[in-house]
């Protein structure tokens, strides 16, 4: 909670003014009702009922509300824009992921736990040595890149080694040891073509599985469906990698098990082979071709359908955490950029060079359109995506919550003696946009402190069902 002492005097006056109003409880109820959103949409309007043959009547009007507005959540998934809506998005994502991994909810049967399910991380290859954190054999912090054999300078006369032990917040982490040795065009090419590389991976994976089962691709498609959900994450060096849950089902909408004798280890092996084999060649402006592929660091962990290395809860939680991350982590923001705007943004030399490289590549036919995505360092894909029948959809989860809230509101209205419209009554809403965000910084401060308390409570509830999981680190 923001201590009142740290607020500006004018803000404190606004807080006191709000709290002293007779409709304060209703205002606080609205703030809670929009999920403690940091910058809610303010709506003005009425709900009008037209009973069959009866007179029209206004059953709700914002005229009776505090400030004559209704607050609606902004729904932004970026934590820097709205911590509350981003938290809710991560929660919805978890529900979606968990339903597909463990079943027993959201229309997915519990028997889904018997289906082969693998948690896979597909990284990018190296484009040049970067500063990194390492662990020594006993788990302590090791030096970044100690020289191997006699220390050697690169062709630019710079050291090829680094003997520092970098702390977690060290700004050098992810930066190249020599920026002139670093392959910036290949790095941007990887981000730009990563969605296509992933698509080819899913095709190759089906082929690998068909081969394991001794079937043709068509025979395999009739007997087995590969369902997945994937999340893209930016590594510190500014390249995307993918975390994915990959599951084998029977075709159809029943979430039935496949009849093929493929187990979770067959699936994990096929994921590894497919990720190793998949390639994409792209034309570069200088006429050369760059062959893009995933990195050597392919990690698969088995979840369901055999001895599990990882629980469904942990996998769902681990992957949901990344769903709210984005290029924002680099301080680039979510808006389109031109190189002219770069100096004012205070970005690292590495990120600036990635953006400039993207801009230059944008002049080449195989990179047409990349200039619109330089703020994402060339990545144009979705941060979270899934195959059609992985589990439920975010839209369905939101619909359920809306229905639940409407039911609560209807119950409250009945308790207060309001009569419910029957089926023959036409209900019409008439709304206009009155603005965005809170009216005063005092209101915003009150909402933010209530939001922090609410998130703490909900986080404690989430933690009670699932402890954080740690294995493997892919942060470079
Ligand atoms: Zn919001
Ligand atoms: Zn270093
Ligand atoms: Zn060099």
Q: What topology emerges from the helices and strands here?
A:
Layout: H1 9-20, H2 24-33, E1 41-50, E2 57-61, E3 70-72, H3 83-102, E4 117-122, E5 134-135, E6 141-142, H4 184-213, H5 217-223, E7 225-234, E8 240-249, H6 264-277, E9 280-283, E10 289-292, E11 299-304, H7 312-323, H8 349-361, E12 384-386, H9 394-415, E13 426-436, H10 441-465
Antiparallel strand pairs: 1-2, 1-3, 1-13, 4-8, 4-11, 5-6, 7-8, 7-12, 9-10
Helix pairs in contact: 1-10, 3-7, 4-5, 4-6, 4-8
The chain binds zinc ion (3 copies).
One zinc ion (ZN) is lined by residues 37-38, 73-74, 76, 82, 84-85.
* Hetero groups: zinc ion
Q: SSE string, helix = H, strand = E? A: HHEEEHEEEHHEEHEEEHHEHEH
Work out the helix count: 10
Strand percent estimate: 15-25%
Calculate the terminal CA-CA distance, rounded to whole Å: 34 Å
For the sheet with most strands, the description reads: 5 strands, antiparallel
What structural class results from the helix and strand content?
Answer: alpha+beta
Helical content, roughly?
A: 25-40%
């Amino acid at each position: 909670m923001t201590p009142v002492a740290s607020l500006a005097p004018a803000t404190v006056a606004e807080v006191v003014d709000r709290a002293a109003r007779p409709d304060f409880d209703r205002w606080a109820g609205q703030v809670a009702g929009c999920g403690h959103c940091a910058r809610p949409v303010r709506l003005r309007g009425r709900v009008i009922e037209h009973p069959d043959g009866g007179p029209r009547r206004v059953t709700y009007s914002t005229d009776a509300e505090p400030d004559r507005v209704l607050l609606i959540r902004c729904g932004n998934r970026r934590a820097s824009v709205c911590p509350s809506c981003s938290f809710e998005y991560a929660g919805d994502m978890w529900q979606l992921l968990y339903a597909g991994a463990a079943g027993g909810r959201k229309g997915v049967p519990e028997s889904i736990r018997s289906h082969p399910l693998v948690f896979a991380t597909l990284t990018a290859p190296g484009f040049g040595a970067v500063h990194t954190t390492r662990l020594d054999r006993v788990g302590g912090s090791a030096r970044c890149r100690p020289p191997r054999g006699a220390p050697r300078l690169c062709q630019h006369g710079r050291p090829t080694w680094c003997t520092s032990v970098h702390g977690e917040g060290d700004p050098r982490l992810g930066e190249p040891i020599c920026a002139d040795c670093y392959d910036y065009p290949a790095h941007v090419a990887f981000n730009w073509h990563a969605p296509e590389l992933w698509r080819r991976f899913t095709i190759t994976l089906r082929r690998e599985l068909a081969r394991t089962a001794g079937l043709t691709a068509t025979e395999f498609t009739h007997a087995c469906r590969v369902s997945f959900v994937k999340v893209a994450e930016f590594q510190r060096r500014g390249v995307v990698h993918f975390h994915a849950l990959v599951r084998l089902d029977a075709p159809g909408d029943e979430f039935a098990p496949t009849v093929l004798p493929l187990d979770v280890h067959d699936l994990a092996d096929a994921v590894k082979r497919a990720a190793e084999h998949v390639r994409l060649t792209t034309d570069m402006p200088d006429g050369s071709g760059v062959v893009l592929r995933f990195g050597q660091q392919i990690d698969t962990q088995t979840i369901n359908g055999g001895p599990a290395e990882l629980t469904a809860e942990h996998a769902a939680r681990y992957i949901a955490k990344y769903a709210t991350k984005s290029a924002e982590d680099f301080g680039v923001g979510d808006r389109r950029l031109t190189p002219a705007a770069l100096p004012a943004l205070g970005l690292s030399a590495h990120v600036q060079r990635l953006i400039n490289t993207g801009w230059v590549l944008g002049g080449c036919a195989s990179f047409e359109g990349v200039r619109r995505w330089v703020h994402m360092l060339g990545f144009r894909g979705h941060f979270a995506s899934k195959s059609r029948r992985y589990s439920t959809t975010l839209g369905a989860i939101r619909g359920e919550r809306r229905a639940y809230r409407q039911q609560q509101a209807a119950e409250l209205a009945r308790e207060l003696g309001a009569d419910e419209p029957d089926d023959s009554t036409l209900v019409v809403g008439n709304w206009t946009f009155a603005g965005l965000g809170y009216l005063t910084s005092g209101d915003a401060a009150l909402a933010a402190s209530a939001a922090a308390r609410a998130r703490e409570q909900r986080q404690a509830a989430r933690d009670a069902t699932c402890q954080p999981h740690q294995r493997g680190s892919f942060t470079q």
